[in-house]
Amino acid sequence: MNRIAKRFASLAETGRKALIPYVTAGDPVPEVTLPLLHAMVDAGADIIELGMPFSDPMADGPVIQLACERSLAGGTTVRSLLDTVARFRETDQTTPIVLMGYLNPVEAMGYEVFTNRCSEVGVDGVLIVDLPPEEAVDVAPVFRSRDIDLVFLVAPTTTEARMELISQAGSGYLYYVSLKGVTGAATLDPVEVAGRVETIRKHAKLPIGVGFGIKDAESARLVSRVADGVVVGSALVQQIADHAGQPDLIPEKVSAVLRAMREAMDQG
Amino acid sequence: MSEKIDFAAFPDARGHFGRYGGRFVSETLMAALEDLEAVYNRLKDDPQFRADFDYDMAHYVGRPSPLYFAERLTKKVGGAQIWLKREDLNHTGAHKVNNTIGQALLAKHIGKRRVIAETGAGQHGVASATVAARLGLECQVYMGADDVERQKLNVYRMKLLGAEVIPVTSGSRTLKDALNEAMRDWVTNVDHTFYIIGTVAGPHPYPMLVRDFQSIIGREAREQCLKMNDRLPDALVACVGGGSNAIGLFHPFLNDESVSMYGVEAAGDGIETGRHSAPLAAGRPGVLHGNRTYLMENEDGQIIDTHSISAGLDYPGVGPEHSWLKDIGRVNYVGATDDEAMAAFRDLTRIEGIMPALESAHAVAYAMKLAATMSPDQIIVVNLSGRGDKDILTVASIDGISF
Questions:
Q1: pLDDT under 50 in chain B at which residues?
Q2: CATH assignment of B16-56+96-210, among 3.30.390.50, 3.40.50.1100, 3.40.1110.10, 3.10.50.40
Q3: For this structure, is B118 an active site residue?
Q4: Which are the contacts of A116, defined by CB distance < 8 A and separation ≥ 6?
Q5: Is the interface score ipTM higher than 0.90?
Q6: Catalytic amino acids of A?
């Protein structure tokens, strides 16, 4: 059992739901990421999605587009963010890390080199936005053989036939994208999300995380009632953007948002 | 090539040309792409759909476009005969309209009432706005902010046609960023929006269906050349940005082994300077905009800025079928610099009275070089993919003239 499975199992025992923050590595400067990761764990994060910056983030709204630009301008690469994960693991061996991003930087590094390094530094899962299960067929064994989960997206447009396919291809958890749109676009409709999550559960045994459109403690609480995990990205990255000029403040500013979500979720 | 390939059999069922192509998009778009593929596969051989397409090609676009012997240019060069496939004479001034008519017919069948498009030089935007006007569809066109500046005339044409042009200020502010933004729009409005992709790139089935619509260029050229010369051409030349005009010309000839083919990328200031838009010459395979293909990227897999004097070629990727045709050696991919394209623009204008688009001028430039190495009984067909009216302001500014 890897860290992701262990984490969902222990959450299930206590009846709690996973809080899954997303931040882009190296945003706004490389030095912030390590203290930020630890601060998010202290604020109640169960799993961390760490963004790999890309020059052309097609599925992201302006907030995460700008995060990618800041990160790349600061010189962050897939290799350097993997080094950051290695340093994180020096003091935290239990919090799962899932890398999230686009395929091209991974291809450029090479699947073998990338997954070997992931495995070495303690990355637990990888979510590649522009790699649907059909295209992942050839490379999935490379990830599987190193016990790295491939996390796939399920969308509001996903047919039930595709849910079946995705749940068979994926591991770790499924990420339900609650909105048609880019990241940070709007606020989700909790009733609609509840219905969709129920449908996905008919096809998938994996835990279901819900993201896109979770902006505050209240939306986190509502989603945590129906999903196994709550993913929050743009709302945190906006805090980073707002304090890009004072990076020392970022871990605390992001933590404050997360703590409020954690409390709301735990009250149910 | 060691064994014979049937080029008509590609892409395969998963949309792959060898290792290239495919469908690399976020999950939200998968259902729409599957629907589009199913609808297209049903309609492409449907007699009524084909009749509708052919009717529009004849009576709205003005096809067939002539195959014209550029006799004075041929004499000046002193070598193979240079023949021009006159896509510049199409309604809206370029080959782009062949594809937008096809896709608009698909949009109508699927029942989408809004279309979006990305555009570089503005030719695809104009062609999309045109078909939208004719079918009464809402139309929004994404265009890099730098391209909006250098293609002002086309921007105004689109507005006159009733389309909204949305300048894209992210990234390098050119075609690739317009494509990103169009994808973001589509993922948000997928229920009622049809995305008219302008080139043979993007996720499957776009590279296939755009190629099929554009192949009318090569089918006509083949027939015209046989009729006028009693033989096939020896060489085909076309410019390659995304590569739709080139595939359109090449595809119906791919199984004709005697016909050699040259795709001309934008070499900008020169390949050696790094300031160019030539992924096939200087890039490597990667994944962008829904397909695996040759890309201009740095060692970390980040897409790098491109440069070309022509907005329509200023793109860091290329259609996946071209990547495959390069690897298997069926097509030669070469380059023409900004300066060579400008010289060809002036030559064709003064010698033949035909003002080519700066994109097409790249093909003319290479064809003149190639012709000089061949004999007078040989035939080169050049795809004159668009007319140069849209580039007048660019050329004038190079000449130091402002209006």
A1: 1
A2: 3.40.50.1100
A3: yes
A4: A146
A5: yes
A6: 49, 60
